[in-house]
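anyone else get weird line breaks when pasting these?? whatever heres mine. first is seq + tokens for prot A
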Amino acid sequence: MASGAETETATEFTSRVTQQLVGGIAGIGLAMGMETGLFDVMISMGGNKKTSQEIADLAGMKERYVREWLGCMAAANIVNFDPKEGKFWLPSHRSNIIELKGLAMTLPILYGGFLKVAECFRKDGPTGVPFEKYHKLDDLIHLTQGRFCQDQLLQEFLPSMPQLHRCLETGIHVLDLGCGEGTATITMARRFSKSRFYGLDISQPALRTARYKAAEMGLSNVEFVKADISLMPTDWTDKFDYLFVHFVLHDLSYPTKALREMHRVLKPGGTLSVIEINAYSNLEDNLERQDRKSIVLAYSYSLVTCLPISLCPGDGAGLGGLWGREEAQKALEQAKFQVVSVTEASTGCT
């Protein structure tokens, strides 16, 4: 990597960065197709060609906006265009584009905090940005992290801990910390009906969504609570057999306090699972040993959301999304947890 940087010309550098920037701008069009449901309409066409008016009619949308979006997608080589017939279609092999919705929605959702984060760089600027300033961030978290719950949590992750898995079957108390819209909480509650599940979060909109989902499914073994992880209910001491923390610790303003609270509410001999970004604590290790695309995404997420949210109170820890496995393990051990396993999980974040 170093030798490549030394031999790269100014023209090559400009060309490379321009390609990255243009790709990012084109991503806005992709996100618009996801948010409006236009990609769902294009997929439903089954590869058949239709005019912009026909597509707009199918979608129940304004033709002029649909036509502009189709132009954007044709230019980006996502949607095909037949100039003779003036018709558009999405080839069948591209119908899996919906799988990229989490990645596509990242830019427009994170942009909500972009200018506010820029102000934080100034010495006299704000210390951070509150979570609620990021419109639909709960939705983005659900999109980017939901696949782990769908594809890995029940199938691989929990079965990898046989004793815990047996306890879940017979009935224990479980706390999902930073549960968001309750994806993991509800997934576990549906599978292990004899166990009692609690989801905790500070986002009222996310909890409202979680409660609605649980009620819609008729789940009676799940409860959602609004509280700070750093200050949980006093009557929760030694209450839970299992704590589940999914991409949360690095976002906290006071992770040391949170870990102490987690130790308090966990029964002696109980189990804690902490899932964090698969990264090292040193930049050099991440650059040399990690997939570069994944690391670019992780640092970008951290810059625009994780860091400013954590630093918002003024005295926050500001761990950042890539505080890394070494520092994470050290923090757990300092909080008197015994780290018995460090493994890599396929989280499906992108």
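and prot B, same format (seq, then tokens)
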Amino acid sequence: MAAAAISCHLSSVTSPEAVSVSSASSLSFTARSLYPPSGVFVPSPAISRGISCQTLFSAPSSVYGKAKESLKDFLHIRDFDKDTILKILDRAREVKSMIKSGDRTYLPFKGKTMAMIFAKPSMRTRVSFETGFYLLGGHALYLGPDDIQMGKREETRDVARVLSRYNDIIMARVFAHQDIIDLAKYSSVPVINGLTDYNHPCQIMADALTIIEHVGHLEGTKVVYVGDGNNIVHSWLLLASVIPFHFVCACPRGFEPDARTTKTAIKAGVSKIEITCDPKEAVKGADVVYTDVWASMGQKEEAEYRRKVFQGFQVDEALMELAGPKAYFMHCLPAERGVEVTDGVVEAANSIVFPQAENRMHAQNAIMLHALGL
């Protein structure tokens, strides 16, 4: 699989031909591309950050084998235009207000069921989807890693077609991105991406909702992510290709986000995007400083190695001070306190990690309402 070269220099990204990386000195590095040049899906090699995905941006919606005019999967944020994303976020605020008021008369999911496939376990994803669907009148079924063994015990295409006959909607939290693509291809009901190794669109929708609530707006804000260029970063890049804001990813060399995703976001010409090696410079003037664990699920054997490589990328009180007094701290959780973030930062007055966690439920409710056409 071809690697995409990225030059490392101090400037803003203005061209899709290069990714801007800030550092104290001039240097160059190579970032892995998750996509083959031909646009045909090829499984990733066994590398430390191997992620299986396929081209997201060039293929028309019809490749998924469903009539997208009447059926709406939620697989990648960039599948939707700005107006649709903002409408979903507005709907999330409306439904959240209703739920918080104690009103339990709004039951759009009454008589509907959702199948929740969990190849990867998660507290927040399960509780937020299951509780949210229940509060709006529906019933959710949890299918854990041992219940289906999708792709091992039974082929994904068969799982999709069977579950579609029982349920009104499917949510899946999986490892390989190809699994969510295949589910959507063969399902006759909407499929919601609850997380893959490539992206995490529901999390970033919740993050956007949280920023709107606390900063007052998303457009024009400066969001600085410090840490591994992982699936969270990919979703931020996809959002930045739809809604204009300033996104900076500060990560160690060799842990940059997917090169093709970065270039696609830059080529969209919507947001200012920077990939930098210098977190201290990156956070200056930030509205939000964001981080995630350095070793995600499936990478725990690399944890000690990553702790050494990521020295200097911990979000601590000193880094937040550089960001300025108005900067909020965000984390998608779970957090390894004392590793990627200090306990003091998580517990500080400007930390909004728990409102952010709550908003998973509200954003996802709105996504499901949109997917079901309600």
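btw re prot B: The radius of gyration is 20 Å. The first strand starts at residue 3 and ends at 8.
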